[in-house]
Amino acid sequence: MAPNKKISLTEEDLVRALKDREKIAIQALYDMYSGALLGVIFRIVQHSEIAEDLLQDTFIKIWNSADNYDSSKGRLFTWMINIARNLSIDKLRSKDFRNANKNQDIENNVDFIDQQRKITFNADTMGLKDMVTALKPEFNSVLDMVYFKGYTHVEAAEELNLPLGTVKTRIRMAIMELRKHFN
Amino acid sequence: MEEAKAYIETGILELYVLGQLDAREQQEVEEMATKYAAVKAEISAIEVAMEQYAIKHAIEPTSGLDKQIFEKISISANEVNTDKGSAPVNHSSINHHSLNHSSSINNHAAINSGSAINHGAKIVPLNADHAASTIKTLRYALVACVGLLVVSVVALYSTHDKLTTANQQILALNVDKEKFASTVSFMKDENKDLQEIATIAADPTWKAVKLAGTKISPQANMMVYWHKQGQHVMVDNTKMALPQNDAAHQYQLWAIVDGKPVDLGVFDATAEPKKLLVAMKEVGNAQAFAVTLEKRGGSISPTMEKMVAMGGVSI
């Protein structure tokens, strides 16, 4: 497969190929969604090497658990991103990850900060930043905590010291804004 | 339709898409979605929006990561294929079962090997290296400390040893020094006496009286110096040849003055005399000198039969 020739299939074809264990399915999924999945994973674990390891684990789990996916319950990407997020949160809360973070020395932290900057000043992300600023920040921050930082909505409510109802409302408002923006 | 709208407005569908609901709530949402097309459409719209949002936030993985993933998946896929091939059963349902069974085993194998590589190759060594290198450094430091301690103890012990030796040498040198000092003072005295003897010999006012042995000790002889004006009498130990006296006896010198013996004091005859010249009692007039052996401390009158030497003064 040439690196610049990405495979793209319709969702229906993808799901069928995945369930039939055709390798082209995983190649297509990788070409279409690896960046989006890594974006979520990285924002949760904040460590690029660990994030890429988790991305591998995510694809292997997608491949091996394809039978569990039920297209009537939702889109394939939603199912995939929930796998990625759950693996990342498990990793984040695992003992060896917390130890690894504790033991990071200054050199590693410098790398770590550089990696963060690299993403902050990514040209693709710059445009998004503008879009995000256009959203009401209080709505967006709750959504980002849940979607990108691995918080549950209950934890986000505790962290922001807000009633659970307000958190739910803000998530809904933020997604409404996104829908308006993307449609 | 009112129920569907109200349900949508609770915000539960967003939480459903975000994976925030428990199993019971999920089931409830899914039932609502089958019941109301509007709910299903709403869920899809939320999903698409979130998908777009994630794609906007995408981070390109390192090139080559896809190859690693495909390799791992190929291994598990090949195992499934060989399993399929090796099962000579045409019955489709059995075939399906065996496929599921082996794939679930492969799930485990793939996940385990995946996590083993992640942990073993990338995360754990980072920690282990830090801890190991610290422990290694500390271990070297400990060995160095023990080495230094041993060297210090040896050095201290050898220094202590040398100090003891030096102290002993100082003590010995002090004893030697005292010996030399006493020898020097003795030699000074001796030298003074010798000079005096030389002066006496050269001075005509001093008379040298030679005393010769008598019948009882013919070998005996000695020299007495007499200064008539000053009335000084000296016994010269260097020119004395008398038998050594014992502890109970001493020699006594007499001056014969007008035929009568006058006591001039006692002296000892030893192999190593302390002084070369011994000053005796004073006498102004004498015709002869005589020596007798008396009891220690001397007698009032001489014991004539114990006279060992005698000599007259020559005028």
TrEMBL record, chain A:
Gene3D superfamilies according to UniProt: 1.10.1740.10, Winged helix-like DNA-binding domain superfamily/Winged helix DNA-binding domain (1.10.10.10)
Claim: Ribosomal protein is one of the keywords in the record: no
UniProt key word Transcription: yes
Keywords: DNA-binding, Sigma factor, Transcription, Transcription regulation
Any one Gene Ontology BP term: DNA-templated transcription initiation
UniProt-listed SUPFAM superfamilies: Sigma2 domain of RNA polymerase sigma factors (SSF88946), Sigma3 and sigma4 domains of RNA polymerase sigma factors (SSF88659)
Matching InterPro entries: RNA_pol_sigma-70-like, RNA_pol_sigma-70_dom, RNA_pol_sigma70_r2, RNA_pol_sigma70_r4, RNA_pol_sigma_r2, RNA_pol_sigma_r3/r4-like, WH-like_DNA-bd_sf
Family under the similarity heading: Belongs to the sigma-70 factor family. ECF subfamily.
Name of the protein in its database record: RNA polymerase sigma-70 factor (ECF subfamily)
Taxonomic path: Bacteria, Pseudomonadati, Bacteroidota, Sphingobacteriia, Sphingobacteriales
From TrEMBL, chain B:
One of the protein's GO biological processes: regulation of translation
A single GO cellular-component term on record: plasma membrane
GO molecular function (one): sigma factor antagonist activity
Domain of life: Bacteria
A Pfam family the protein falls into: RskA_C
Key words of the record: Membrane, Transmembrane, Transmembrane helix
Annotated TM spans: 140-158
Ranges for domain Anti-sigma K factor RskA C-terminal: 155-303
The keyword Membrane belongs to this UniProt entry's keyword annotation: yes
Keyword Transmembrane helix: yes
The protein's name in its UniProt record: Anti-sigma-K factor RskA
Source organism (scientific name): Pedobacter cryoconitis
Source taxonomy: Bacteria, Pseudomonadati, Bacteroidota, Sphingobacteriia, Sphingobacteriales
